[in-house]
Amino acid sequence: MKISARNTIKGKVKNVVVGQVSAEVTIDLGNGKEIVSVITKNSVENLGIKVGKEVYAVIKASSVMIATD
Amino acid sequence: MKISARNTIKGKVKNVVVGQVSAEVTIDLGNGKEIVSVITKNSVENLGIKVGKEVYAVIKASSVMIATD
Amino acid sequence: MKISARNTIKGKVKNVVVGQVSAEVTIDLGNGKEIVSVITKNSVENLGIKVGKEVYAVIKASSVMIATD
Amino acid sequence: MKISARNTIKGKVKNVVVGQVSAEVTIDLGNGKEIVSVITKNSVENLGIKVGKEVYAVIKASSVMIATD
Amino acid sequence: MKISARNTIKGKVKNVVVGQVSAEVTIDLGNGKEIVSVITKNSVENLGIKVGKEVYAVIKASSVMIATD
Amino acid sequence: MKISARNTIKGKVKNVVVGQVSAEVTIDLGNGKEIVSVITKNSVENLGIKVGKEVYAVIKASSVMIATD
């Protein structure tokens, strides 16, 4: 499957906090960097997301803002 | 200024394509990785975004999906 | 590849309008229903999106609002 | 009221899971298809969303991605 | 029609810039404040959006970030 | 720091509801108007968000829809 979302960043799950509906997943990008994602609790279960699993962060380009100093 | 968006990733602008309303900005993260952003043409001008400029990609956690192989 | 986005709806591309940065793609769901998507021009090219192609609309649950009469 | 969001899909509420802040609502589209939405718990209450209620899923075109096999 | 989006802010259209796919609409909130929206060119036409028209900016709560000084 | 998000609206925190992952923050804009935001519980803690604090609602233009009567 190919997806139109322009950003796909590989990493390893570092932490998972599960609420009643949402879950916060921290992904370790391996160079001291992390990405934090909020998805549904059901997706955490459907994808078998747990600490140590290799995953991809997927981000649509129109969701990315730019900041400058 | 601090922002609630959980993801702030430093990089350097690699490419800018400007349309009549939107602009696509490619940010080089320095390790062979890139992030692509779509913002308004006006923001490109307001922030002085051009090739070589140091910028941050800013992404709200709820905009980050997760994929698995 | 499995993705955390909860909504994947099959259809066939009915129309594509390409601008300088963005593109609007209309997907026919086959029962008189359609879904309209705005992605980048580059994604249209990368995925070979053209009229008649079978595709999936993919939508993160947190992007779906609900309305009532 | 007319809204700029290009996608309005009619269905019937099939399931509601309510957390402290967010709620996950599953909408049955009637042909074996479903759409899952995450909105606030307050919106579930304000709109009187409950199983069996006729509702519309509303989605901005820029929130719709496209995938291909 | 009632919608789950928690934010509906009344204003008057101050400026419209139309591209091939997207359009940028500036809404005057009346107290020296403005909101800028990017929607599709087709929505501008479907809703008859033009300078001076009374409109509402509609924003899903999960799209609102918070910043502090 | 300057950000590409086109909308930055000043206000004062009126209410905070914190769940296990997400939090709902109501911001008083001072003229009888409010904006509701859903961010992560962690951001509420990182930014020290509490009732009475001066904050800014920050919204990307592509997240703003338009409705008409």
What does this structure look like?
Six copies of one chain form a homohexamer. Chain A has one domain: RNA polymerase II/Efflux pump adaptor protein, barrel-sandwich hybrid domain (OB fold (Dihydrolipoamide Acetyltransferase, E2P)), CATH 2.40.50. Helices cover 9% and strands 55% of the residues of chain A. Chain A has one helix and six strands, in the order ββββαββ. In chain A, strands 4-3-2-5 form a four-stranded antiparallel beta sheet. In chain A, a hairpin with a 3-residue loop joins β2 and β3. The mean pLDDT of chain A is 97. Chains A and B meet through β2, β3, β4, β5 and β6 of A and β2, β3, β4, β5 and β6 of B.
CATH names the topology of chain A as OB fold (Dihydrolipoamide Acetyltransferase, E2P)
Number of distinct helices of chain A: 1
Strand content of the residues of chain A, in percent? over 45%
H/E element order of chain A? EEEEHEE
Work out the helicity level of chain A. under 10%
Any idea how many domains of chain A?
1
**Contiguous uncertain segments of 5+ residues of chain A:** none
User: Which chain pair shows the most residues in contact?
Assistant: A-B, 37 and 37 residues
Largest sheet of chain A: 4 strands, antiparallel
In the CATH hierarchy, what is the class of chain A?
Mainly Beta
- Mean pLDDT over all positions of chain A: 97
* Spatial gap, N to C terminus of chain A: 38 Å
**Would you identify the CATH architecture of chain A?**
Beta Barrel
- Please identify the oligomeric state: homohexamer
Spatial sequence of strands, sheet with the most strands of chain A = 4-3-2-5
DSSP strand tally of chain A: 6
Overall, the morphology of chain A is globular
